[in-house]
Amino acid sequence: MLAKPVGNVPEGPGLSYEPKWDGWRALAFRQHNGVYLQSRAGRDLGTYFPDVVEAVCRAVAPGTVLDGELVVWERERTDFSQLQRRVTAGTDREALVRHHPAHYVVFDLLSAPPGLPLLGKPLAERRALLTSLLADAPAQVTLSPASTDVGQATEWLHTWTAAGLEGLL
User: I need a surface site. Which of 58, 80, 156, 157 has the fewest CB within 10 A?
Assistant: First the structure.
């Protein structure tokens, strides 16, 4: 699903807000033999983000499918160029992974262990399961904040842009 720009933060009953991070959208499929990290276009990203693959492998059990955003932090803000460098780095990739670790900011749980599909469940239910699932996750696998408070969302929009927030979802 792609975000669409709007002029104002929408308000109304049943709405939930989340930051839109400046990164790459990715699905993480936790399998018995590891993690398959897939781009929105269906490409395998695991080679470029071995640090995220390892962190997801430690964070969740097989059968889990996560939806989130890959980001690299540089001086308290996201750095999109560091994501791009991972793809073109070649033999320098290991140094990039060490010096500029990537993080996976997770916002949805599509399947829960041991492979229970959740797409038919309400977002609030998936979010509650995701919060519990990531309670002890390593720092590289982070739960994206969410709020039903339009004031909180508006504050994020106005104050978090310096940290790499592109907008709200």
Answer: 58
